[in-house]
Every structure is written in C-alpha cells, then in structure tokens.
Amino acid sequence: MTEAPNPAQMLPDPTAGLEGVVAATTRLSDVDGQNGVLILRGRKIEDLAGVVSFEDAVMHLWQDFGFTDAASMARAFGDARMTAFDVVPLLEGASSSLDVYERMQLGLAALVLNKDLPAPIAISGALPVFLAASHRIATGLKPIAPDAGLTTAVDLLRMLVGDIQPSGYSDALDRYLVTILDHGLNASTFTARVIGSTQADMKQAILGAMGALSGPLHGGAPGPVLDMIDAIGQPENAAAWITDALDRKERLMGFGHRIYRTRDPRADVLKAGLQLLGSENPKVQLAENIENEALAALKRAKPDRPLDTNVEFYTAVLLDAIGIDRSLFTPLFATGRTPGWCAHVLEQQQTGKLIRPASQYVGPKPD
Ligand code: COA
Description:
Blueprint: E1 29-32, E2 37-40, E3 43-44, H1 54-62, H2 70-85, H3 88-93, H4 100-110, H5 119-138, H6 152-161, H7 167-179, H8 187-197, H9 202-213, H10 222-232, H11 238-247, H12 265-273, H13 282-301, H14 311-322, H15 329-351
Antiparallel strand pairs: 1-2, 2-3
The chain binds coenzyme A (COA).
Coenzyme A binds at residues 17, 217, 221, 251-258, 302, 305, 307, 310-312.
C-alpha cells in the first residue's frame, strides 16, 4: 500500500468549506456580502422585520409553495401549536439528561404528521411549544398549553413565562424571528436541502438542520456572546479583555462572517429592536461599548480580513433584554429558522434532483 501524504505537506484544499461554490438556485433569499444586503424573496430584511409579523413573513417566503392565504396562516400556526402540545407528556417523561435543544428534537421526532396540517406548518408551529415546554421542564415547572388565538411571538413568551408579556417584549421577539427566518445557503440550510433532496420527510430534514445549527460557529454563538459581555462586566475592562482574547488566538463571538465583508444588516435590525424595550438597560450600553472596542481591535489584529459585527452579537443583547435565558438562544434560533429550512426543502424537492457532489481522493492507493 502506498503511504498517504503527510497532511502537513498537502496543498491546501481549494474546496475546503465550499467557499464561493454555488450549490443551489433559489428564489428564497439572497445574501449580498459585499454590500451588506439581505433580501427575502424580493424584500430587504429591513422592510420585513419590525414591519410585518412573523406569520406574514413566513407567508411571504412560502408563497411559491401553495401557501397564499395570509389571513389563515396565524390561525394555522395556532392549530399546529395545539396539536404539538399532545407530545409534551412524552417530553416530561424523558430523561433529565436531555438539554432543551435535545428535548425539542425529541418532540419533533415524535410529532405525528397528518393530512390536517401541511408538514411545514405542523413543524414550524410545533417548535415554539417544544421550546417553551422543554425550558419549563428543565427548570422544574409545569409546561403551559398554547393559546391558538395568539401570535407565535406572544404565545411563545406566554408559554415560557406563564402570562402575557408587555407588547414591547413580544414585538421585539417577533422582530427577531423575522430577522432570522432565512439566510441563503448557510450550513444548516444546506443540510436541510441535502436531506430533502433524498425525498426524506420534512421532519428528518429539520432534525438534521437543527444538528448543523447547534455548532458554535453557526447558531451556537449568541450564548458565548453574552458570556463575553458578562465577563467584561464594565466598559473600562473591554479593551484589555478583547486584546488578551485575540492574543490567545481566540475568536470574538458575534464578529466575522463567511459571506459578509461588511456589517451584517441583521445586526442593525436587531439593534433597532432594542428601542422597543426602553433605553435604561445598562447591559445595552456595555454591549455597544464592547462592540466598538472589538471592531477596533479586530481591525488592528486582522487588517487584511474585514471582520464586522454579525447577527449573533445583537441577538444576544436583544434576547437577554427580553428576559430570555441564554440556554434558549440556539433553540430560539432554530425555531425562527425552521420555516426557512422548510422552504428550502420544498424548493430543493421541486428540482427532483438528489444532491450528491464528488470528492477528490487523496488517500493511499492499492498496490
Ligand atoms: N474573531 C477573531 N478572529 C476571527 C474571527 C473572530 N470572530 N472570525 C474570523 N477570524 C479570523 C480567523 O482567525 C482567521 O484568521 P487567520 O487567517 O489568521 O487564521 C481569519 O479571520 C479568517 O477566518 P475563517 O475561519 O477562515 O473565516 P470563515 O469565513 O470560515 O469564518 C466564522 C466565519 C463565522 C466561522 C468566523 O468569523 C467566526 O468564527 N466567528 C465567530 C463565531 C460567530 O460569531 N459565529 C456566528 C456566525 S453568524
């Protein structure tokens, strides 16, 4: 057998990370990384988030797949929440070793899909219920049944906390859910499309996408962003803390992006959402200070690589200001992204084509 080349001596793999590779044609979303523009099916994210409700934004995204009745979408999501609550006893009986995210995945695996509700609605409506129930189970509280007459954002907060929260809170959460609805061919969306391309059912595609999203380089960043803000504690500590982290070759969570070479437009959409929550929160002031210090330090440390604020930085600040525990940041990201994943699965399945790329073999050759 011929020896495999020493990895240290191998040429860098030009396909590593598939950077710049076009792997799908989509009408759903476009990420213009040079100009910092995100378009969802013809509308800029700034013209959707904070302007239309989560349900209407989903309707906007799904309109090519036979979902055309905007008025019935919120009601259908409510019905889906009610159906999903039937699974909650199973979640209550499951092992205490499961974290919130794993319990949501368990709920999704157990969700029975039937002809009464299209799979994208049944799944997208179920995740808020599984999220809230899983959090309450994890904190020793009884899950709260959904109210089908409320919007997703209002009911999600109610199911988490126990009663209806001030409208500024649910409006901010609604803005967040719209902001993260879809974002081109990111790792989890690509995963969903790959699974969908095998004609696996929608649940399997969403479960796989959730797996991809859970990593710290993708949807797992906002919790560590808040850890960083808490570790810095005071504005005067920011510069030294950040310099030390960069000297240790650590990455600053909430900064940098594979596509954006400028500011992620979602950062400002979420930052604007903070105004819904009043201006007295000292953590918001601290976060702005840290952001400024981080941007300056990244410019010094990586002058050739534009590294700017990404969606996760103000996700952490906004969700914390709403009162959402940091353990729920990734679960909430999955909840808001699920209708986007569903849309990509449907779009991929319309092509009827299995995704099956090639790899270049560089291993040992048989004698
Ligand atoms: N802090 C410090 N340095 C960073 C950085 C960050 N947040 N993001 C990238 N860099 C540096 C890398 O260390 C690397 O430097 P090097 O060339 O000297 O090794 C260079 O920038 C390029 O990084 P690379 O990992 O090749 O770029 P990418 O496009 O694959 O990375 C992310 C994109 C998102 C994975 C990366 O920016 C990151 O890890 N960010 C922090 C995690 C985060 O916020 N994730 C949420 C994304 S929405």
